[in-house]
Amino acid sequence: MTTLSSGFARARRWLRDHPLAFDATLAFCTLVAMICSSFTDPGDGHGPPAFGARTPELFSVLLMTLTAAALVLRRRRPMQVLAVTAALAAVEYVLMDPPAPVVMSTVIALYTVASRTDRPTTWRVGLLTMGGLTAAAMVFGSTPWYSQENFGVFAWTGLASAAGDAVRSRRAFVDAIRERAERAERTREEEARRRVAEERLRIARDLHDVVAHHIALVNVQAGVAAHVMDKRPDQAKEALAHVRDASRSALNELRVTVGLLRQQGDPEAPTEPAPGLAVLGELVTTFRNAGLPVEVACADRDRLPAAVDLAAYRVIQEALTNVRKHAGAGARAEVSVVRVGATAEVTVLDNGRGSAGRRPGTGPGGGTGPDGGGPGDGPDGGGPGDGDGQAGGGHGLVGMRERVTALGGALTAGPRYGGGFRVHAILPVEARTGEPDRPGTAGGTGLRR
């Protein structure tokens, strides 16, 4: 039984892959069925049909052969095949009595048309074929018009139209399901690629925050050490110690951030928690050690969601880094984090002298490069190309804006009236990471003067 079913399945696949061979086989089987039926006399309806009671005419055999041969082209020319078979069947009803079952080929041709066209065409062509052949059988036949043979023509042609339309509908339904499945698969792949891109962007922002903050501190402390090495070696040692601590902290944070890129099962997966407002004091201490006085007013720092907590920490870190690089000597900074209803507001203020003219291309270190800040003239001079300026032209503000708007918040940054600079971020406490920006949030991240 298994061998028989497997052989049947192979034959079915072969015929499906070779439609012309399938149609030729179908035409031959139809011809055999028509010839066998032409030898059968249905009788008067009171007894079984008698095989061999009559013999078909040579003209009828010719018509049956022609209609069967036409079925070979039923897929390529369905309407033409239907017209030929219907015309030959009508000729058989008109000229021959009793007629041979040439209409069998017409039934198959009508099924093909109904299964490969639309429903309106099926209705029009089906009604025309059914009516024409039934009328020819009733008018030109020797049997009464109400005989079962005449109504059998109507029933078989109508059944062919209905079956073909049902097959077409099922094919359309299966194709629609397959298309939806393929579209859903493409959507999943696109969603996966989008999430990968967002994760890469988030990791890039973290790397930028870590590198910009710690390298700026290392640059400042190294400048201080070089400046006081000869006259005040104790202060130079202290500055170098701060350089060591900042570099160690940078390496640790880079290890944690890059560890997120490890594959599942890789050793030494990151175990340290992401930084947040709980370690804000340590962050502020590094800036104070670098010579930037910072005052902090922070409430409810432990009650924020993890994503909001990290975003607030990174905003403060980037803003203070820009203050240290661009505000100039003698600048002071103020940091505040407060809860206002369902939002958390983060504000970083400074009174730096470089704020009034702090635009892309004019850093406080006297440089004229596109990012501001050229080679420094002392501990406050800023290294080559460290212009991440707060005026909106550098990558620092872009990263802060993207981080805040990803949570559905808003960020504003710009000069303060009377001098200085202000960075203000509004973060929703109910953070919705990964969702598209809500209307109105992106527009609120530009500069306000």
Give structural attributes.
449 residues, alpha+beta, single chain, five-stranded mixed β-sheet, two-stranded antiparallel sheet, rod-shaped, 57% helix, 7 strands
Explain this structure to me?
The strands form two sheets. A five-stranded mixed beta sheet has the order 3-4-5-7-6, with helices on one face. A two-stranded antiparallel sheet has the order 1-2. It starts with a helix and ends in a 21-residue tail after the last strand. The chain is of the alpha+beta class and 449 residues long.
Summarize this, please?
The protein is α+β, with helices and mostly antiparallel strands and 449 residues long. It contains eleven helices and seven strands.
